[in-house]
Write a structure and sequence with these properties.
Elements lengths: L1 H33 L4 E3 L8 H10 L3 E9 L8 E5 L5 E3 L3 E8 L4 E3 L9 H11 L2 E2 L3 E3 L6 E6 L2 E3 L4 E3 L3 E7 L2 E2 L3 E2 H15 L10
Parallel strand pairs: 2-5, 7-12, 8-12
Antiparallel strand pairs: 1-4, 3-5, 6-11, 9-10, 9-12, 13-14
Length: 208
């Protein structure tokens, strides 16, 4: 009985030791697989160009991904202006760092259908809402405050054309003079007066 009891105790101890070794081994394996405890401080990339940032992140075991671009003519092409995660945060090796870079050219936007289809005030508001800068209007003979064209850099642009957002646009606007000689406002007033005059009749007697 003593022999059997001692064997049982030995077996139990052996099983506990094996279980402990198994747990330690699994924990070690998980640490290796997940790189548990290995963290990297995200460096600041703002102001660097893409190539410099790429080399720096590769040395630290991180990945660089260009996720977005903006346009600022005062910055150089490819200069980094934003990143995520931000610098100073702790990440694991192999983590992806997303960056926003400066583009050499401004984004282009399509000219909306406003030529000969909109008033000066509405057209200017729509173009400014798209991000365009507006110059002084170019006055021409035509219906007052009506848009007859768009000029960019001294050239006419048309509905559907793609124009860089940093361009300054000028609207061709009617000054209220038709055919180069007739004032639209005066013409309308004359029509009203003539209509009023036609509505008045004087009694007369025909003399034979």
């Amino acid at each position: 009985m003593r022999f059997k009891g001692g064997a049982i105790v030995v077996n139990i101890i052996f099983m506990l030791v094996m279980l402990l070794l198994l747990l330690v081994g699994l924990n070690y394996a998980m640490n290796i697989y997940t790189r548990h405890g290995e963290t990297i401080i995200v460096p600041s990339l703002n102001g660097m160009n893409v190539n410099e940032a790429q080399e720096l992140l590769e040395e630290q075991g991180l990945k660089l991904i260009v996720s977005d671009s903006v346009y600022n003519k005062r910055l150089s092409d490819g200069q980094i202006v934003g990143q995520s995660p931000k610098s100073g945060l702790l990440v694991k090796s192999g983590h992806e760092i997303f960056i926003t870079v400066n583009s050499q050219t401004a984004a282009s936007v399509q000219i909306p259908d406003i030529i000969d289809n909109s008033s000066y005030r509405d057209a200017e508001a729509e173009l400014m809402a798209l991000g365009f800068k507006m110059g002084e209007p170019i006055m021409m003979h035509g219906e007052k405050d009506w848009v007859y064209g768009i000029v960019c850099g001294g050239h006419n642009v048309y509905t559907g054309d793609f124009v860089p957002l940093d361009s300054k646009l000028q609207l061709k606007v009617g000054d209220g003079v038709l055919d180069g000689s007739v004032d639209v406002v005066s013409l309308e007033e004359d029509v009203v007066e003539q209509t009023e005059d036609e509505g008045e009749f004087d009694d007369f007697e025909e003399v034979k």
